[in-house]
Structures are given as structure tokens and as C-alpha cells.
Amino acid sequence: MKPSRFLNILLGLPLCFIGCIRDDVSSGQTLQTALYLFDSASNQILTYSDLSSLYGAPSVPIPSKVLTNVNLSQVTNLAWGGMALDTQTDQLFLLSESGTVVRINRIREQTGAINSTDVTSFTLDPSQRAQNSKFSQASIDSVTHTLYVAENGDNLCRIWIITNAGSRLQNETIPLNVLQVTNDTGGRSVAADNGTVFTYADNGSSVLIGTDTVIGPRIRKGAPSGFQNANQIIGSLTQLGTYGSLAVDTANNVLFVGLHLQDGNQISTRPPVLAFDTGAFGLGFNQVPKFTLGDATSQRQIRVLAHGGNKAWLLALSSASSLGNNAVTIWMAPQSGSTFKTLVIPGTPSRIFKGLALDGNAN
Questions:
Q1: DSSP H or E run through 27
Q2: 64 phi and psi angles, rounded to 5 deg
Q3: pTM, to two decimals
Q4: Contact indicator for 307, 256 with CB cutoff of 8 Å
Q5: What is the C-alpha separation between 158 and 224, in angstroms, rounded?
Q6: C-alpha distances out from residue 219 to 74, 142, 156, 212, 332, Å
Q7: What DSSP designation does 241 have?
Q8: How far apart are CA 212 and CA 218, in angstroms?
Q9: Which of these, 70, 284, 311, 348, has the minimum number of CB atoms within 10 Å of its CB?
Q10: How big is the CA angle at 149 (ends 350 and 44), to the nearest 5 degrees?
Q11: CA 326, CA 354: separation in Å to the nearest integer?
Q12: Is the pLDDT of residue 341 over 60?
């Protein structure tokens, strides 16, 4: 008997949990992972303390905890991908489309009504916003504790850098500290880890691939100080399309890209999730993905990706509209050929999810 199955029996878990767990995945890769979902319909944070149990359950269980606080109404209009968890400081960040950030300290300890002394809200300076812009994906570097926020406006996209995000003060206005690539447009995504920053843009300056001048979607790898032109992946072999979302697997050094194929008017055979080695940047522009995930027919509307970092989980939120819905798609140990499971989280009124965060260090 495998150790993971023996442990499940000892804990008295139903046998269906055992049957649903993949035999080729070490329990250490998936156990002790928590999921946080922000519900814009109720301004609540739903917490599932054990993602393995949620994934393996015959029906969707009730959340382990439902967290509330009046300040969460400031982020009702959550940015797509506007949740980030600093696993080292135990702080959860929520970002609205208009640039309000709500930080919750001691998130793992919170139950029910969040202690107001653990909640802080601050604002990205409205006077320094790009024209007609919206904020979207947020990412926290749990090593440097720097928060990165993607902003997309008219003919302009850029990343706001918020240093010392965990100690920003109540009602503080954060001045623009920008990470930007001239001529990049349509950028709604950012992912950061250990001093490295990844971004996605729908378009930008042309690059020369062989004798061809190429423009279009590209992903970049850089640092808070900036990006080098050589460290981007672009071209027909990449299968990149418009409206990309990013997530980093820090254990295996893989960058995942989720595509909203419907809005991007992409061909129906294009895979919705692409995976690239993070070490592949700088080795050539036009690279084939390491592997792909998802169903090109049924998963054409991915807007948010999140990865467990050091744990083998990849989650997606999809929506045909800008409003969000109550469905969450889960890949366990994502790799070539991995299947997925989509869960509809019940609630009254119907749940609306536009952001989620995973905690690979949950106890």
C-alpha cells in the first residue's frame, strides 16, 4: 500500500478521496495547499484549507472558512487576477480595477469576521493613472515582498512596483514606480518570484526572426530594473494569442500562460494553456511550448491562472463576459496530457470569482 493511501485511511477519509488522487503524484506535491477565493457577489473570502480534499470530493463541500470585513467592499469590483498571497509574511492582497489595495495580515489565522486591526487599505495614485486604464493581475514576490500590478490603458501597458507592500500604511497613496517596455500594448498580466518578473503583452515593437519582421503577442522575463529585448518569447511557433494570464511553477521552473481564445478570435484548435521553461528566455524568440494543457473547444475563455508555486496545482477562472462567474478549473500536477476538473461553487446569490490565491505553505 502506498504511504499516501495509508495516511488517508488513518485519517478516516472516505474512499472516494483515494480513488480521485493520481497515483503518480507524490503527496508532498499536493498536500497542505489552501485555496482563497474572493466572491464579489457577497464581498466574502472563501477558504478551502485542503485543495486535495476539494479536488477529490464527490460533490463540492462547503468552504472551510468564510471571511468577512467591511473593508472588502472596497474591492467588490476586483481586478481580474487581483489576488496575491505572500506565503512568507502570511499576508493576502486584493486589488480593485480602480487601484485600491486591501491587505489582510495573518490570513491563515483569520476565522469569520476578520480582525479590523489586520486590515489595511491603500491606493495607487489616481493622478498617475494611464488614460482609460484598468488594473488587472497582481503578483507578490514572497522573497522581496514587492507587489507588482499590471495596468492596461489606451496604447499603453505597464507594471506598478510597490516595494515593502506588507508595511504600507492605512489610506496611503502609492506613487507610480513603473516597470515598462516602450511600445508594448495590451498587457494585463504579471508574475513575479525571487527577483524575476514575467509579463505578457498583446503587441509591441517588432523583432527580427530569421529574415522575417515579427510583431504580436509576447512574454518577457526581466527584473525590477527592466527587461532586455532578447529575453522575450514571440513568434508563430509559440502559439501565443491575445489576452494572456500568467502563473509560475517555482518548483519546476515553468511559466504557464492562459489564453482567452474567444476574445482573441483565435482558431479553435489552439490550446488554452501553454507552458514554457523559465530558463528558455534568451535562447531564441520563436519557441515551441514545453507542453500544453486544456481543451481548445470548451476552455476558450480563461481570464485568470494561479499556481501553487511549490505545490503541484494549477487553477483557472474563465468567463465569457467581464463579470465573472462561480466556476473554478483545477489541474492536479499539470503536465503534458493532464486532465482537468471544473467545479461550480454554490452560493446565494450566485458566486462571482475574478481572483484567487493558493497557499502552498498551508498547515
A1: helix 27-30
A2: -65, -40
A3: 0.91
A4: yes
A5: 12
A6: 31, 22, 16, 19, 24
A7: -
A8: 16
A9: 348
A10: 25
A11: 9
A12: yes
